[in-house]
């Protein structure tokens, strides 16, 4: 298995352009985390009163914070494994995630609706570094797995896993009252646009991603 990994990834490791692009994609991801932090804290600080919601106002709160926290962690560990196993997928995947986070950071600062009054309290210190309470529109828990489904669409098993994750997380954030309905349902449409924007901006990275077999890189 190790020999197979070395054989299929060695050409990319030796390609300086690929290596520098990968480093750049990691740096951009870190920058997006910083932007997300300041956007999230600002939106939370400025949040106003909550509003009624067709779904949240008519269902009780379910204690599913374990899925919200540990399900998300497990999903991203899986994404890391998939990318490390086939490193040519790293640059486009990370660039797309960074673009998603940056665009979402802009959205959450446009309107500052307060959190729904009945909701599950998340105790995880790790999750609280990425979600802040007032950063509602649109749902990252729903959108990011859907983005992974679009990115890995040609790999049927991965597509099914990520689509199922997106639907499950969408249901969880509604059942825990952590997101409004519009946060969840809009995430699919906005994420679809982000994916195609990433394809347009990061053409070389997408070409690497779609290569079916190792070959000499130009």
UniProtKB/TrEMBL annotation:
Is Cell membrane one of the keywords? no
Q: Which organism is it from?
A: Candidatus Taylorbacteria bacterium RIFCSPHIGHO2_01_FULL_46_22b
Keywords attached to this Swiss-Prot or TrEMBL record, sorted alphabetically, are:
Lipid metabolism, Membrane, Transferase, Transmembrane, Transmembrane helix
Q: Which residues cross the membrane?
A: 20-39, 67-85, 97-116, 136-153, 160-178
The biological process GO terms on file are:
ceramide biosynthetic process
Recite the lineage of the species. Answer: Bacteria, Candidatus Tayloriibacteriota
Gene Ontology MF term list: ceramide cholinephosphotransferase activity; sphingomyelin synthase activity
State the membrane topology.
Answer: Multi-pass membrane protein
User: What is the annotated localization of this protein?
Assistant: Membrane
The protein in question is named Sphingomyelin synthase-like domain-containing protein
Q: GO terms for CC?
A: plasma membrane
Looking up Pfam families in the UniProt record yields:
PAP2_C
Q: Where is the Sphingomyelin synthase-like domain?
A: 134-197
